[in-house]
Amino acid sequence: MKETSRAVFKRPEGTADLLGKDIALWQKFLKCADGVFTLRGYKRIETPIIEREDLFKRGIGEATDVVSKEMYSAISGGNLSKIKTGENLSSRSKLALRPEGTAGTVRAICENGLTEVDSMPAKYYYAGPMFRAERPQKGRQRQFYQIGTEMLGSNSPYLDAEAVLMLLDFFNRVGIESSILTLDINSMGCEECRPAFREAVKEYIENNSEHMCDTCMERANANPLRAFDCKNETCAKIMDSAPNIHDYLCDDCKEHFEIVKSLLDASNIKYNVNNKLVRGLDYYTRTVFEITANIGLGSQSAIGGGGRYDKLSLEIGDKNLPGIGFALGFERCALVLDELGKIDDSQESCDIFIACLCSDARNIAFELANKLRETGFITRTDERDTEGRWQNIKSLKAQLKLANKLQSRYAIIIGEDEIAENKAQIKDMISHSDVALSINEIQNYFKGLKD
Ligand code: AMP
Question: Residue 399: which residues within 8 A CB-CB, separation 6 or more?
Fold first, then answer.
């Protein structure tokens, strides 16, 4: 006989199995997202988890950390052998796991002509896993879940304010109130005014080259603005006195930012104008924003953020449509809610448990359970076997213990005596009262309780 080696697999580092209360929370997030976003005309979209690698290179920027260091390639089996033999792959064959949702969603809006299909602008939201090969730590995973919105087709600053309000509204709905959040906003300027700012920052970094870290110096050419994100204390101190974007904004960008701020003021939203907020990706223009939570998270305190990307659709599609969006991270929100003691721990849910005391009762219970489920009751029976023998019937005590564990509100008991009388006992598990009913009446009895 061929010998097979056995292996016990564990999930890859930086990934998680969503179970029990995590799944319940994710479902709550989806419900809240739907509630909050559809009120403003956003519709759900699902895009592929794999996209062409060059979509992210072009859209997010080749020099960004997300693309240059953290992106996972997705190469099909056939193409792996080509790589081994040093053959070049066509760009169509080079796929990547999405590191974020904006590039794919904007691609989908352009490719499907959604700005024409919908009345402009196109407004969509997504929810699902993203992948970044980062060093795992609390609140930082390699596969994590994001919910995000994207609007394509309008320059209006009202939509920037709407995006910020919508994100805060979402946090509020899931139980993360504004009092524990900090909102930072900034303007990144546009293609008219940003190049001069970028040059000024580059020159500033070069003038301080002997004190700046190697990473900032490496990035100085391709992506000098990333120096604003550097965690190195000396770099951070130097960047405090770096050129300020607000001295470079053109009149249009200034006016746009002033309107966004006035709309937030009018909605009583507190914010900090943080001229060092650049948000790491190349596609941002004008408004950028980030929300951090001051409890439950260590250094990874950003729970959501976004911004405008007025040139992204031109970069990856065939349309020149300004847009804005944001993404929020599920795992970090879950950590905050956990710290707030707002995660519901009750994992089991059962309305009616049917205890069978003989094998004939099983057939009756099978039919009855289906009828009760039709009426909308979560109905369970004892599905355990005893060391592989499913035929064994457990004692009433053992079955009621299971009903309690499942937190069942009612238990129906069917045994030989009940079958002989065509009756069943119905036990209220809270008041401990009993009632005997004919089996045919049970569905109507519970229907009556519901009405
Ligand atoms: P970003 O596009 O990087 O600003 O991400 C938006 C949000 O996604 C962040 O505010 C986080 O809440 C979440 N997020 C980003 N990267 C990770 C990660 N590696 N692990 C967990 N959550 C993340």
Answer: 353, 355, 356, 382, 411
Task: Decide whether any atom of ligand 1 lies within 6 Å of the 303 Cβ.
Answer: yes
> What pTM value is reported for the model?
0.90
Query: Does residue 34 or residue 229 have the better pLDDT?
Result: 34
DSSP string, 111-126: HTTHHHHSSSSEEEEE
Angle, in degrees to the nearest 10, between helices 157-174 and 20-38: 150
Q: Which of 146, 184, 186, 229 to mutate to test the pocket of ligand 1 (most atoms within 8 A of CB)?
A: 146
CB-ligand 1 contact for 327 (6 Å cutoff): yes
pLDDT per residue over 262-317, tens digit each?
999 999 999 999 999 998 877 899 999 999 999 888 888 999 999 999 999 999 98
CA torsion angle for 395, 397, 402, 408 (degrees, to 10)?
A: 120
Whether 261 and 272 have beta carbons less than 8 Å apart is answered as no
Query: Is 321 exposed, middle or buried (CB count within 10 Å of its CB: 0-12, 13-18, 19+)?
Result: buried
Q: Give the Cα separation of 363 and 369 in Å (integer).
A: 10
- Dist. CA 236–CA 207, nearest whole Å: 15
Contact 128, 145 (CB under 8 A): yes
